[in-house]
Design goal:
2 domains, Beta-galactosidase, Chain A, domain 5, nine-stranded antiparallel β-sheet, mainly beta, six-stranded antiparallel β-sheet, Immunoglobulin-like
C-alpha cells in the first residue's frame, strides 16, 4: 500500500532521524506508527454510515433499504443499528460474481430517522448466517420420480412445465407464496396461508393431509390460461395472448433470502407482431410483505408494440379499479379441478401499475386488464398483491381488501429518504 504522510508529519520524522543514536529506536516507532495509521485507514475504507428517514407520518413495517455496492471486492457485509447486528443480504443480480446490492429491513415510526453502520468484508459469510424469512425453490423431476433442487433451467422448446416440480420456480414470504409456470403462459399462480410462516421447503407447494391438518396453506387459485395476478401478456386487439413462439425460455433463482427472493423468467427471441424481442421478467418478494415487485425489461425494437397485464376474473367476483393504473378483484372458486377433495377458496388479487406506461383499461373473457407499453427504458414495471380469506392475519371481505389495495396503490413509492 502506498501511503503519503502530511508534510508536517514528514518533517517530524526527519527531525527524529537527525539523531543517529536513536535511529533504531525510532525505526521501531515509525513501524508501529505506520501500522496503526494503516489500520485506521483501512478501517475507514470498510465501514460506512447509512442514514434513513421515514418521510411519511405513517408507521412502516419491514421497510426495505436497498443500497448499491460500490466496491467489486466486497463479498460480505455486516449491518448494525445502535450497536446491534441486524440481518442483511448481499445479492449478485447479474450473476457475474460481483455483488450488486445490499438489502436490509427495518421498521419506522412516522418521521423517524435511523442511522445504520455497514462493515464490509472481502470474505463471504455463511449463507445461513441469519434466520430465513423468505424462500425460493425449483426442482427438476428425475426418471425415478425423485426431485433435484436447481437454480436455473432453460429450454429451446419454451416449455418445461412437465419436467419441473410445481411446474416452475416458486418463492414465498411468511405471508404469501407465488409460482411461475414454465411454459408459454408464464402465469403467476398463488398459494395462501393460514399463519405467517414459511412452508414451501416442507410442503413443496402440495401439502400432505397431515400438513393441512397442522395448519399449512395451499394453492388457492386455478389460473388456467389467464393472467393470474400480474402476468405480462401480448395483446392481439381482442384478448391477452401467451408468450410464444420463442427461441429459448429460461428460469433462474437469483436470490433466495434471507430477506428477499429474486426470481427471473426470461424469454428470448419472442416473435411478437412480426418482431423478435427478448423479455426478462424479474419478480422480487421481501420478507414481511405479501406484495411482489415485477420488472419486465425488453431487448429489441418494441416501438408500436402493445402488451397487457391485470388480474383474472374469479368466478362471481367483485372488481374495483380507478381506470388509470389500479385494478383488483375479490371472488370465490375451486382452486383445482378436483372439486370433491378440495373446497372453494376466497381471495383477492390486485395490480398497481403506477410505474408502468398505461394506455387504457381492457378486458377479455378471462381477465380484467390494462393495455401497457414499454417506457423510455424499454421496461414495464409494476407491483402485485394477493390476500387469502383463510388468513388469520389478513382481510376477509371485498370491502376491506379493496380498502387495503387503494391505500397500497396510492402510497408514495419512495417513503424513505436514504443517504449513503
Amino acid at each position: 500500500m502506498l501511503m503519503v504522510l502530511p508534510q508536517n508529519q514528514f518533517k517530524f520524522m526527519e527531525t527524529l532521524f537527525n539523531y543517529p543514536s536513536r535511529q533504531i529506536y525510532y525505526m521501531k516507532y515509525l513501524t508501529v506508527f505506520i501500522f496503526i495509521f494503516s489500520s485506521l485507514w483501512v478501517q475507514a475504507q470498510v465501514t460506512r454510515t447509512c442514514r434513513v428517514r421515514n418521510n411519511s407520518n405513517e408507521q412502516i413495517y419491514d421497510a426495505a433499504i436497498v443500497l448499491p455496492v460500490k466496491d467489486n471486492n466486497v463479498k460480505g457485509v455486516t449491518i448494525y443499528y445502535k450497536g446491534k447486528e441486524i440481518a442483511s443480504q448481499l445479492d449478485d443480480l447479474d450473476q457475474d460474481g460481483i455483488a450488486d446490492e445490499i438489502v436490509f429491513l427495518s421498521d419506522f415510526k412516522g418521521k423517524e430517522k435511523k442511522e445504520f453502520t455497514i462493515t464490509f468484508s472481502e470474505k463471504p459469510f455463511p449463507t445461513n448466517r441469519y434466520a430465513a424469512r423468505v424462500h425460493a425453490q425449483m426442482f427438476k423431476k428425475e426418471k425415478d420420480k425423485s426431485i433435484t433442487p436447481i437454480t436455473e433451467a432453460s429450454s429451446p422448446t419454451g416449455t418445461l412445465y412437465k419436467n419441473l416440480h410445481h411446474h416452475g420456480p416458486a418463492f414465498e414470504s411468511e405471508l404469501m407464496a407465488y409460482r411461475i409456470y414454465f411454459d408459454k403462459k408464464q402465469t403467476v399462480d398463488v398459494y395462501g396461508k393460514y399463519h405467517k410462516q414459511l412452508e414451501l421447503a416442507r410442503s413443496l407447494w402440495y401439502p400432505t393431509d397431515e400438513q393441512l391438518a397442522e395448519g399449512f396453506g395451499d394453492d388457492i387459485l386455478r389460473v388456467s390460461g389467464s393472467t393470474g395476478v400480474g402476468t405480462l401478456k401480448g395483446w392481439n386487439g381482442k384478448k391477452a395472448i401467451h408468450i410464444e413462439p420463442v427461441d429459448n425460455r429460461e428460469a433462474r433463482i437469483i436470490a433466495s433470502g434471507p430477506l428477499r427472493t429474486v426470481v427471473d423468467m426470461n424469454s428470448y427471441g419472442w416473435l411478437y407482431n412480426g418482431k423478435k424481442i427478448d423479455l426478462k421478467s424479474r419478480y422480487i418478494l421481501y420478507a414481511g410483505h405479501r406484495d411482489a415487485e415485477v420488472y419486465n425489461t425488453f431487448t429489441g425494437d418494441t416501438d408500436s408494440l402493445i402488451f397487457c397485464t391485470g388480474v383474472q376474473k374469479i368466478k362471481d367476483c367483485e372488481m374495483d379499479q380507478n381506470g388509470k393504473n389500479r385494478i383488483a378483484v375479490w371472488g370465490t372458486d375451486f382452486p383445482v379441478n378436483d372439486t370433491i377433495k378440495y373446497e372453494k377458496q376466497t381471495l383477492g388479487l390486485a395490480v398497481d401499475l403506477r410505474k408502468a406506461k398505461c394506455i387504457k383499461p381492457a378486458e377479455d373473457k378471462a381477465n380484467y386488464l390494462y393495455l401497457v407499453e414499454p417506457d423510455n427504458n424499454n421496461q414495464i414495471n409494476y407491483r402485485i398483491t394477493v390476500c387469502s380469506h383463510k388468513e388469520t392475519f389478513g382481510y376477509h371481505n371485498s370491502k376491506d381488501f379493496f380498502k387495503y389495495v387503494r391505500i397500497w396503490a396510492s402510497r408514495p413509492c419512495n417513503l424513505l429518504e436514504i443517504n449513503y
